[in-house]
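call fold(seq) -> tokens
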Amino acid sequence: MKSIFLSASLLLVAIPSAALAQDSKGRPEDTEQWSPAVPVVTPGSSETASPPSDATVLFAGASLDQWVSVKDGSAARWTVADGVMTVLKEAGNIQTRQSFGNYQLHLEYRIPADVTGKGQARGNSGLFLASTGPGDTGYELQIMDSYHNDTYVNGQAGAIYKQVPPLVNPVRKPGAWQSIDVVWTKPMFAADGSLKSPAYLTAYINGVLVQNHAALRGETIYVGKPGYKPYDRAPIKLQAHGDPSKPISYRNIWLRELADIAG
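ret:
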């Protein structure tokens, strides 16, 4: 009888500890959950999109009271109808009444279905992420028709104009509403005005990443090399550009302010 008990003891000692541990975990089916089923939800449409609860609404479809003329600070005079604002070229660029530092911004735009022209003369506008002075000074994310429309790559839709081409071209054909979402990190300056940290931009067009924390070389200029000048907070500008007979429209613009980044 002693020999039987001894043999059993030796057998238990011989079983690898790893195998015992594996057995203690049970079967893979024991950790698979099959019910209740996850409910199916149909995603909302941009037609009924609403901003986050902490957003500053810059355009909700009825009024341009959050915008002024860049030229003289008077009330913005772009056309508003049917929940949409449309560029009025003779009224010039418009910018927000408020100034901002770091932020997340959402807007939607539409190139006219019957847009004409080619290259930079086709559905051109622009989002200036910080409008630091009169004219076209500031930092521009290009908005234009880049659907089967060739131009220089650092000037097409989604480019940091004349600096960084977009990673991809995800634009829809003219006539369709399109979305832009950006995260803007402002540049930081020392007390003497020298640059401590460049501006950074992450941007999506139609939900597709086109700028991935891209560092800017300075403000947008058409000819020459970009550079920085100190600012802390600045308005956001929309550009009145392109063919005045077939202007771009905008809707559903909102912004969430983000805290400054220490250091």
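The chain has a mean pLDDT of 86.
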